[in-house]
Amino acid sequence: MLRIGSHVSMSAPDYLLGSVRESLENNASAMMIYTGAPQNSVRIPIEKLKVEEARQLWLSSGFDMEAVIIHAPYIVNLANLDNPDTRKGSMEILQREISRSAAIGARYLVLHPGARLKADEQQALKAVGQALDELLGADQLTVCLETMAGKGSEIGVSFEQIREIMDNCHHPLEVCLDSCHVNDAGYDLGDIDGMLKHFDEIIGLDKLHVIHVNDSKNPIGAHKDRHANIGQGTIGLEKLRALVHHPLLEGRIFILETPYIDGRSPYKQEIEMLR
Ligand code: FE
Ligand code: FE
Ligand code: ZN
Q: Does the N terminus or the C terminus of the chain have fewer Cβ atoms within 10 A?
């Protein structure tokens, strides 16, 4: 069974239960949430999120918790060596997200590797691996490093950089491949076989758990990170459909993060298009 869904909101009054309902309404078989606003660290206590009811509904609909992905807030930057206080703050925020994910019963947390700012690339990659090493314990949760577009001083743009972070952490890490980001980073989705072969050589396809399925507003190698609706960008529907149905990616979790159209969610229709 294809496991595909989207980022869904989590808001009052039903919180996680509302997220599950929204996903089911979209005929999704996977979902991704932020446990609060992605841009800040203000968080509603976990007891208010209707976690048990949400989990019951999700499981009784025939889906599993491996298909429920949590996305860490964007403000977390473990690569910030310019400001040790900010890096420490990031670690505290991430620590709390890890406990919240565990309380929800999620098994996978997607994390942006961060921005190196003025630091040297090698030091920044090492810093992220070491921070994760400190943070992760014997928990059930697996952090998936997301491949980035290369906007500003972002790290984790090439597969080699992702590998470097993984090598600096003793705890097993996995990966989230974002189609818009890899396009903008310079990988050609016109040659998915070639890209996956390269991914396999550098990282290992067994480490790939999540795929963010987004079209891109920019050409290959633009380093921009602006998501387009499916079929409305430079990648196009055919290549994205080939990605979702690629035999080497069977069983992975596919998540849409495309923009709303005139204030309305595009996900039900875009999931249908990709199926
Ligand atoms: Fe992301
Ligand atoms: Fe993404
Ligand atoms: Zn993005």
A: N
